[in-house]
Amino acid sequence: xxxxxxxxxxxxxxxxxxxxxxxxxxxxxxxxxxxxxxxxxxxxxxxxxxxxxxxxxxxxxxxxxxxxxxxxxxxxxxxxxxxxxxxxxxxxxxxxxxxxxxxxxxxxxxxxxxxxxxxxxxxxxxxxxxxxxxxxxxxxxxxxxxxxxxxxxxxxxxxxxxxxxxxxxxxxxxxxxxxxxxxxxxxxxxxxxxxxxxxxxxxxxxxxxxxxxxxxxxxxxxxxxxxxxxxxxxxxxxxxxxxxxxxxxxxxxxxxxxxxxxxxxxxxxxxxxxxxxxxxxxxxxxxxxxxxxxxxxxxxxxxxxxxxxxxxxxxxxxxxxxxxxxxxxxxxxxxxxxxxxxxxxxxxxxxxxxxxxxxxxxxxxxxxxxxxxxxxxxxxxxxxxxxxxxxxxxxxxxxxxxxxxxxxxx
Length: 410
What we know:
Residues 87-156, 383-410 are annotated as: Disordered. By secondary structure, the protein is mainly β. The chain is 12% helix and 42% strand. The chain has helices at 80-83, 87-91, 98-114, 228-231, 246-259, 399-402; strands at residues 4-9, 20-25, 38-44, 57-60, 66-79, 134-136, 141-147, 163-171, 186-189, 198-201, 204-208, 212-216, 232-234, 242-244, 263-269, 272-285, 290-302, 308-319, 323-330, 338-339, 345-354, 358-369, 374-385, 404-405. The protein is globular.
């Protein structure tokens, strides 16, 4: 007997509970506990250890949304928890009772089972004269620029691991209001002569292999997204029964440098795991200077049983020139999200620019636990590396219909 997948949406009177729950039942009808609107999505299929193909429908294991895979990426995952597996339990020893310590050990095992790392990253470089500045575009306030001759906190050379598969995916627009992740997180620089500096492609995401829950559907258009029919076509004899069109291949080739993901960074503090994925966006040149742009996607995930709330962010941004800037502010992207056992994750994107071709970022999030305990959760250090900028301006599929201007002040 196959598994029937249904989508369950919480009552809109509870805005903090907006989410998509997966209800599975094996041939026996069960009475819904809450008054809900139920809609059949499809039938779960066996998860695969190897790579999923373009056109595979899936449910996101963490955020619950419906999606379809466009194409896979191979990323290097730098996981500091795997490098120092005793770190997670050690950080909570002073504040946790024996029961909490046991929970911490369980969370540590969960992290070990679900994460991986990868080869050596570039080390930070420093210079004597600070000739460039850096900024985070969603910063509410900055404490200024400080010249430091070293970046001792950034030492990715110690982290080792292996390669992992991620996927570029389309998100079903019907689920966007119910997920705690930005649905316009994929951005790129527009034409140099355009007044619009940043463009966003709505409804795109990057998903790790272990977060994919594949399912099948008999519908010819099971996903609602304006790019679905332009990128994919129904092929009932294929597996999966949706194949990429020439427009998808052309779009991927033209935009590959700005969509490409290569590094993923992870670190856990007090049962809160931070995942960072940086992307190089390109260089803007003026007669006076060159400005290099990156975007970065950050996921916060609560692995414990007590709710926590993000209160503040504290960034350090190091430029190749030797400049180190400190940025502080309330929350992220104008929010102070709560990470509870029921809604454990929050994901957002932001941007940073340097007047140098490379640099590093790291920092902390100030979190407050429901029992009143506050702590700094480490943001793993990650490199900002540029690429040759001779590949031309990225070309979206249909700019007038699918691209939006993104306010880089967040």
